[in-house]
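User: Predict the complex.
Assistant: Input components as received:
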Amino acid sequence: MTAQQLDMTFSALSDPTRRAILARLATGEATVTELAAPFAMSLPAISKHLKVLERAGLILRGRDAQRRPCRLQAAPLGDAAAWLGDYRQFWEESFDRLDTYLQELQEGEEEDGRK
Amino acid sequence: MAASSHTLTVTTPSDREIVMTRTFDAPRELVFEAMTKPEHMKEWWGPRGYTLPVCEIDLRPGGAYRFVSADAEGNEYAFRGEYREIVPPEKIVWTFEFEGMPGNVSVDTMTLTEEDGKTTITSTSLFDDVEQRDGMLASGMETGAVETYDRLAELLEKLQTSTS
């Protein structure tokens, strides 16, 4: 995954309506009308959000001209989570090691002091 | 010893920042030294099981650094940047870039505060879009990429529960 794709994913996820849409799609495919139902928002406004999600590769639109149901595509989400997870894990583990190392350094100093 | 203070806290106070804090049972001078000298860095920098075969540090404003972290299989992950500000033993400001994601540069400010012999590192990563002006990268970051961390985790949890 390129940095640009990752940014599109994050950008798409930065909006609460779009996150709600994805959460809804996690339970199964839905039409624009179905997706719009819980929101006080016009269909064109919802369609705009769907376009952003589609461009980010997070959803697929069906070919059926009438219904065009939306389906979740979870792969980019996994990539985004992996990247963030790596970042956190990287620092978590580095700092754990630093903690241990600092203890070792200080124990070494105490021993040197006793000599 | 409060175990909670020894855990890493990650917060996202604004669209462009990631703030991490972590407390250590050591005086500030020692922590600063451990963060700035290659012989010390090699002992801790990188996830568990990784070594640091390359650790070049030119510790002065404008000086470059480069670290290469390697796993047991020999896969290497390189990081590079430049020191912007060094105030021993209180503060280090550097640019940070993972060479695997070139152009995605953050400016990290690491402050060290000491209380009762314990030192807290607060690292603030500010994602800079100057080098990314021409690309989607900048717009992606500006529209709040990083703040979604917690919500993304929530969402993924939801997704996993619903598909399992």
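The two ends of chain A are 56 Å apart (CA to CA).
Let me know if you want any component modeled separately.
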